[in-house]
Amino acid sequence: MNREFNLENLVRPNVHKMKPYSSARDEFKTEGEKMTFLDANENPFENGVNRYPDPQQLKLKQVLASQKRVSVSNILLGNGSDEVLDLIFRAFCRPQVDNVITLPPTYGMYKVLAELNEVEDRKVLLKNDFQPNVEKILAEVDDKTKLIFLCSPNNPTGNSFSEVSVEKILRNFNGLVVIDEAYIDFSADKSWLERLEEFPNLVITQTLSKAYGLAGIRLGICYASAEIISILNKIKPPYNVNELTQHKALERLSKPEEVKQEIVVLLEERKRLENDLSKMGFVKQIFGSDANFLLVRVEDAGKKYEQLIKAGVVVRNRSNQELCENTLRFTVGTPEENNQLIKILKQLEA
Ligand SMILES: *Cc1c(COP(=O)(O)O)cnc(C)c1O
C-alpha cells in the first residue's frame, strides 16, 4: 500500500464538512474582567457548579501540556479514554465501509466500539511472545483500513510492544496508529509522546484512571497533531468533561510527587507478588509486566477464580481470550490486599 498519508482522505466526508458546534461558553471568553453572563440560561445563584464547564478545558490542558512537553493544540480530553476512542472511530471510520485492525488478546473496548460503529474489526493475533505480528498486520491493510490499535503496555498481557515493531507499523501504514498508553506510567519504556512530531499518523491515548488513581472522575487524554485534534474537536460533545472532573484532575496533577510515590509502591508490590506467586505449585507461568497487574497461567483457572471469590477476592479470569488459556489477571493492590491474596492462594495450595 503506497498511498501517501493524507488526513483529508482519511476523515469521514460528513465530518470533514462539519463546523464545530459553538456553545455559549465558546462564543464569549472573558479576558479576566468581570462579566455578567446572561447567555446560557444557567441558574445564576452560585453553588460552585451552576455554570457550564469550560468546553475546551483550557486550564487542565495547559497543565498537561507543560508536564508532557506538548502544546495545548495537541491535546483533546474526553469522558475517559473510552470516549476518546469512540470519537476516533466516529471521525474516521465510515460505518459498513471502513475497517480497523486490532491485536488480540487486548483491551475489549476496541472490539465493542467497532461493533457499535459498524466497522469491521480485522483481528491479527499477537505472536506467542505477545509482540505484534507486523508482517501479518501490514498484509491485512487495504484502502479502507483507517485505524490500527496498539495497546502498549498491553492489557491483559502486561508487556510493552517493541519500539522496532511499532515504528515499522507507523512508517508503513498511512492510516492512524492509535497507541493506547493507559499503563505507560508503570512502564520502564518511554512514552511515544516524545516522538509525536515525527509521525503525522500517530495518536496516543492516556488516562487518569490507572496510575493517577482517578478512575471515578473519567478523564481520558488524546495526544496527536493539531490537525487530528481539530477534527476530533469538531465532533466531541461540547461539555464532555464536567466541572468536578476538571477540578479534581487539576488538583491531582498539581501533586506529581504523590502520584510518583504511589507508583513506586505499586511497582515494589508487583515484584513481591511475582516472587510469591512464582513459589506456588499451581502457578505455571507469570508473564512479564510493565503495568499494575500480572497475567498468570495457573492450573484450572476457572476453579481458582471461584475459590478466590468464595474467599472474598475478585480477580479477572482471562482464560477465554486467545493465547490466554488458564490465565488469571491480578491487579496489584495495597500491601494489605496483596498479603490477603497471597495468604488465600497459599491456603488453596495446601
Ligand atoms: C483501563 C484501560 C483504559 C482506561 O479507560 P478509561 O476510559 O480512561 O478509564 C484504556 N485502555 C486500556 C487498555 C485500559 O486497560
Automatic annotation (TrEMBL):
Top class in the EC scheme? transferase
The record's listing under Pfam families reads: Aminotran_1_2 (PF00155)
Q: Does the keyword Cell inner membrane apply?
A: no
Q: Which transformation does this protein catalyse, written as a reaction? A: L-histidinol phosphate + 2-oxoglutarate = 3-(imidazol-4-yl)-2-oxopropyl phosphate + L-glutamate
Q: Which UniProt keywords apply?
A: Amino-acid biosynthesis, Aminotransferase, Histidine biosynthesis, Pyridoxal phosphate, Transferase
Family label: Belongs to the class-II pyridoxal-phosphate-dependent aminotransferase family. Histidinol-phosphate aminotransferase subfamily.
Identification of the protein by name: Histidinol-phosphate aminotransferase
- Please tell me the species this chain comes from: Salinimicrobium sediminis
Gene responsible for this protein: hisC
